[in-house]
């Protein structure tokens, strides 16, 4: 019976090698890169083939490799002929690679190389924390402490010193920004390798979102009844937009005084905010009304009562939408409230975008069409309204389908970075699942040449929407201080921090 070494030499010879094991690496590399080569690998238990370390390859084959085709190397390419040969090696080399490795810092079992040195997981984490530590480490003795597995927590200074001594490099520790960037790259890589066809689970997720959306959103707004009429007349001169533009900066400069408005008249706050260039008729009318009708309720923002009813109606539907989702219902009540308070206005903007006409800049909500001035008459400053209109134009021009809209609503709802969430991992997993579903849906359902740009554009719109919603909430609080009786408690609950 021939020895394993003789079998290996025979195998090398038949593969065309004349220089022994040293040429095996180059030949195997050539075989692997040949597009015409098909190797049939048959697994057998408890056998590991290890090609010698003295060769130019360090490949490990977790099975007995049967080469059913003899490869003949020629200048013309790689040709296959039927043949059978088995490569085997001594079990001694197999055991060498199973030898335990130990941490160079504390002697614990090492899992691999971390920051350029062979260490355990504990010392890896310690080194990362020590690098990010602001205060210096100090030894209470002579900086000569012996670091072992049992006492490695006793002296951080000597432990850190030994980390550096064995070659751990601080420049290899990533910053928080680099970690975030790496996570984003990993997520993008996962999205790139995802299948171009929707999986049954993804189809189920989309169908659940679509069903919940259709039950809770009426494009014709036929269920929106009993609301206060929209006031398109105003109680002060018709140049309201000019006033709002001119008084924007002084209004912001008096933001710290908003908290005192509830204790005084709304006019006491409003009059100092008017700049000298404000329309004289506006100033005189407000001053007159303050003196003659101080005991009466004056509606400054005439569209506000109607918009308060509209937004309250939308909030109720968004709550019903969220409660229709199985993953949302599985969260604890605290996280449900946190996610709703953070995403309600985002989802509302996505729903309003479905009825937005980018050409006329009108929100066509069934029998009522809203335009920019209606929003200004509700108390919102023109600079924010212009930003809202621009956002809706951009998003509407993407031409999203109903399915893409509802997936975007789900992505906004399951945001793991909302302050105070407890089940962060579960929420993050659900958001990633929906993001992958949106990417796959776009790839599989669309055929236009620019479809590969649609997914990042949608994500960019969602990011912009969150910034816009923060400004929107701040202005609602300002409007509530000026005209407190017309904003519903539900709206105030949604935008409150607690």
TrEMBL record:
GO biological process entries: cell differentiation; negative regulation of transcription by RNA polymerase II; positive regulation of transcription by RNA polymerase II
One annotated GO molecular function: RNA polymerase II cis-regulatory region sequence-specific DNA binding
Principal location listed in the UniProt entry: nucleus
UniProt domain NR LBD: residue ranges: 275-498
Entry-linked SMART domains: HOLI, ZnF_C4
Residues annotated as domain Nuclear receptor: 100-175
GO CC aspect terms: nucleus
Annotated Pfam families: Hormone_recep, zf-C4
Family the UniProt entry places it in: Belongs to the nuclear hormone receptor family.
Protein name, entry field: Uncharacterized protein
